[in-house]
Structures are given as structure tokens and as C-alpha cells.
Amino acid sequence: MFTGIVEATGSLARASSSGDGFRVTIRAPFTGLELGESVAVNGACLTVSALVEGGFEADISAETARRTTLGALPNPAEVNLERAVAAGDRLGGHLVSGHVDGVVRVTRVEPVGDAVLVEVRPPPALFRYVAEKGSVTLDGVSLTVNRLSASGFELMLVPHTLAVTTLKQLVPGSELNFEVDLLARYVVRFLEATRSEAQP
């Protein structure tokens, strides 16, 4: 599990094919990484497959490449990084699984003082999980939904977020990994199942 509080940015380089997917080298400013450890890379939970000087290697499956932006990033690409949360750590963001649900597209980027207003459009099937003042994860960053529109939602990126994550690079048309809030996912699923059972 993760919290959506980015610890650092790193660099991802696509290295070689591995089965139906590929193996990447990720430069990361972490010490004490261990084989088998989970690291969220732009919000996608990856397993440390090998340790290399200055970082680690991880395998990206065909499913992960299809469902996330990791398969289409330039080489190299700056990425947001977070190690899995340890028991007893502070939960500064919200509970994040690292299982990306889909990709959203940025439709508007507008400076507002020192902050930046961003509007994004999620896939229609995932929009039902988004609530005003609820939590979402974009490229591994825990964010609060400011407002819903007819086909998307707005977020405000504060100066600290802009300074320590890759979200400072956003422009209209940018694509981001999107994970819905875990609570929203289960509430919607429960209501759907209840409604289905109640129908004659």
C-alpha cells in the first residue's frame, strides 16, 4: 500500500523486452532497497526485480503497459516515486493500492496565483467513482477533487506539489495514470450488487 505522497522523482529508461512486456531501469535516490520490494512509479506498483547502481530494475507486464502510461513514456522520462508505506508511518495522503484503473487526459491548465488549476477527463466508466472533495491519485500523487464538471473534474496543484512532483510539466493533452479512491470503488460495487439482488 502507498499514500500518494511522492518521496522523490527519478528517471525511467526502457531497457529490454521481457516476455510480453519489458524490463526498465529506474534511477531512484533511495537507499536500502531490497529485492521484491514494491515501489510506486507514476502511481503503478512495480516490484524491484534487480538492484543496480543508483536505482533498480522492474518488469512491466503487457497489462500494465496497456492500462498505464508507462509503456508510452519517452526514454528517459522523469517519474514520481514512492516506496510502500511501513506499518506505523503517517498516512499523509490517502490509501493507494498502486493498481492503476486507467488513463485520464488533461483538458485545461490555468495558473491561479502560485497554484495551478488542472481539469482532467477520465474514462466514462471511471467517472462514477469521483466525488467532489473526494480523493484521487494521478501519476502517484494524492489529490483532492475541487469540482465536478459534465465530463471531468478539477484539481488545484499547490506550490509544494508543483515543486516535488512531475505534475509541474502538465499541459493540455497530457495523459496521467489514474487510480480511483478505494472506498469509492467498494461503495459503488456494493450498491450495484445490492441493486442487482433487489431486482425481481
Folded structure, characterized:
It is a single chain. The protein has helices at 62-67, 124-127, 159-164, 182-198, and strands spanning 8-18, 21-27, 38-41, 44-52, 55-60, 77-83, 102-112, 115-121, 135-138, 141-148, 153-157, 175-180. It is α+β, with helices and mostly antiparallel strands. It has two domains: 8-83, Elongation Factor Tu (Ef-tu), domain 3; 102-191, Elongation Factor Tu (Ef-tu), domain 3. A hairpin with a 2-residue loop joins β7 and β8 (115-121).
How would you describe this structure in keywords?
6-stranded antiparallel β-barrel, Elongation Factor Tu (Ef-tu), domain 3, 200 residues, 2 domains, 4 helices
Summarize the structure.
The chain is α+β, with helices and mostly antiparallel strands. The chain has helices spanning 62-67, 124-127, 159-164, 182-198; strands spanning 8-18, 21-27, 38-41, 44-52, 55-60, 77-83, 102-112, 115-121, 135-138, 141-148, 153-157, 175-180.
Please report the number of helical segments: 4
State the major sheet.
Answer: 6 strands, antiparallel, barrel
Rg, rounded, reads 17 Å
Regarding quaternary structure, what we see is: single chain
Secondary-structure class: alpha+beta
* Spatial ordering of strands, largest sheet: 1-2-5-4-3-6
Which parts are unreliable, with pLDDT below 50 for 5 consecutive residues or more? none
Which CATH architecture of the largest domain? Beta Barrel
Strand content: 35-45%
Q: What's the pLDDT, averaged over the residues? A: 92
Which word captures the global form? Answer: globular
Report, as a whole number of angstroms, the end-to-end distance: 39 Å
Can you tell me the number of structural domains? 2
Q: Can you identify the CATH class of the largest domain?
A: Mainly Beta
Tally the beta strands.
12
CATH topology tier name of the largest domain: Elongation Factor Tu (Ef-tu), domain 3
